[in-house]
Amino acid sequence: MKLKVLYFASIREKVGRDSEDLELPAGVSTVAGLRGHLQARGGAWAEALGGGRLLRSAVNQDMAPDSAAIKAGDEVAFFPPVTGG
Amino acid sequence: MKISVQREDFEPGSELRNISKDKSAGAVASFVGLVREVPMTLEHYPGMTEKAIAKIVEEACSRWKVLDGVVIHRYGALQPNDRIVLVAIASAHRGDAFAACEFIMDYLKTQAPFWKKEQGGDGARWVEAKSADDHAAERWRV
């Protein structure tokens, strides 16, 4: 079972893609873990996902903190703070 | 209760009539958000957007007496003065309608996954989230 990862808005533009299917990396069990794994790709990935307070995430379409658990089959999204309304 | 995330424009008058049909409805409070000054494109997260709005509406209905309501949010390319969002709530009395309407709007701004990109004269730029919006949502904390 894979993980679906989505990117939106400025994060999508920086990493140059809107989604990918990813084999859940060994030892990764939280949003923070996945984020670290993706940042390790370097370059734009390190910059886009290292955004600290300017990065938000969702697990299965619910806002989720860095500490949220993830497992194979989940949909995880990374995006900047929202600006609708 | 109607929730719609759509590309097309909406007609506030007919939406307000549609939520006013209950005989016990004595008040309808509404908010319409417009594009200010510059053209923009609104991106959203299909699926999560609807889910996030439904959660906000559900919370409003648990806090205030709501008879009916409507939340419409547009996405895609929008021009100055275009309507972006409509929140309207029907209640027996104005207090519930005003409060629920403002609560939904404040939470929508910080919880619903929409992102604005403005097309200014010197290029396109993503709109940055305002801390004032966080504070507006914050004050409803119980």
Keywords:
heterodimer; A: 85 residues; alpha+beta; 5-stranded mixed beta sheet; 3 helices; B: 4-stranded antiparallel beta sheet; 34% strand
Describe the structure.
Chain A has 85 residues and is α+β, with helices and mostly antiparallel strands. Chain A contains three helices and five strands; from the N terminus they run βαβααβββ. A five-stranded mixed β-sheet of chain A has the order 2-1-5-3-4. The longest helix of chain A is centred in the middle third of the chain and has 9 residues, at 31-39. The radius of gyration of chain A is 12 Å and the shape is globular. Chain B is an alpha+beta fold and 142 residues long. Chain B has a four-stranded mixed β-sheet, sandwiched between helices. In chain B, strands 5-3-7-8 form a four-stranded antiparallel β-sheet, with no helix packed on it. In chain B, β7 and β8 form a beta hairpin. At the A-B interface, loops of A face β3, α2, α3 and β7 of B.
Roughly how many Å apart are the termini of chain A?
Answer: 36 Å
Tally of contiguous helical segments of chain B: 4
Task: Give the helix level of chain A as a range of percent.
Answer: 25-40%
Poorly predicted residue ranges of chain A: none
Rounded to an integer in angstroms, the radius of gyration calculated over CA atoms of chain A is 12 Å
Write the element-wise H/E pattern of chain B from the N-terminal end onward: EHEEHEEEHEEH
Helical/strand content category of chain B: alpha+beta
Evaluate the radius of gyration of chain B. Answer: 15 Å
Which runs of chain B of at least 5 residues are low in confidence (pLDDT < 50)? none
Largest sheet of chain B: 4 strands, mixed
General shape of chain B:
globular
Oligomer: heterodimer
Approximately what portion of the residues of chain A adopt beta-strand conformation?
25-35%
Whole-number mean pLDDT of chain A: 94
Give the overall average pLDDT of chain B.
96
Query: What characterizes the major β-sheet of chain A?
Result: 5 strands, mixed
SSE run of chain A: EHEHHEEE
Provide the β-strand percentage band of chain B. Answer: 25-35%
